[in-house]
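Researcher: Structure prediction, please.
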Amino acid sequence: MSLRLGIDLGGTKIEIVALDDAGCELLRRRALTPQGNYEATLDAVAGLVRDAETALGRRGTVGIGTPGAISAATGLLKNSNSTCLNGRALQQDLQVRLRREVRIANDANCFALSEAIDGAGQGAGIVFGVILGTGVGGGIVARGHLITGANAIAGEWGHNPLPFLDDGDKPCPACYCGQHGCIETYLSGPGMARDHWEHASRALGPAEIVDAAIAGDPQCEATLMRYENRLARSLAQVINILDPDVIILGGGLSNIDRLYDDVPRIWTPYVFSDHVATRLARNRHGDSGGVRGAAWLWSD
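Model: Predicted structure follows.
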């Protein structure tokens, strides 16, 4: 029986999980991420792997999920919010420390892979995994295989313009990527909070907005309706291009129950088809999706 080790290399914590062939969890441990120290981060990852293998009495494959991606041009990590990792040969350096091949993927890709293999997208031909949180990310899995793309940005729908713009979407907000009107600026948690402030002049977080909308607050209800409409338009564009069997939501905003009924109803007129068979589903593995998906990088 093989042993798959998955590591979620985040900005504040590093988590490891060990899975058997059936996806059963054998071990889970965490460590704090050394702040701003690349060598210490490598040591922390290696230490978690060493301790897990000692506890389980065998050697495993290692997959890493992290914000950012390995540049196809340089082989170095790019676009990570753990800035000490950017421009570093993370994959090669970990392979030297661990004395084996290591597979690395973006954390949103790992989420999509986890849900495609044994989550809400199990058995589906094409899965689009969506992260709706501090940022907006995505990943594509086709028939069990993760699609990364020629530029290692497959699924990065959050940095496309919000589609089917109407006057209520303007002026288009600036995005940190240098563009204006990116989907992320509307559909991230900070994006929802910004939109509510602009319309209601009240500083509320997403959870507060949702709770108030449920309680009957008309301003919060209006904010949530704008959010649903923008999410529906954005996912309709994904359906028009990718035509996935299922779209699975993850991240903190995926916990808004009404999205799963309202968004498919709203997206229908924006999809170029007489019938929309794509399902919108809640994730099965919650916050564990990324670390489990890192382990599943060795599924083929």
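Model: The longest strand covers residues 25-32.
Researcher: Thanks, that helps.
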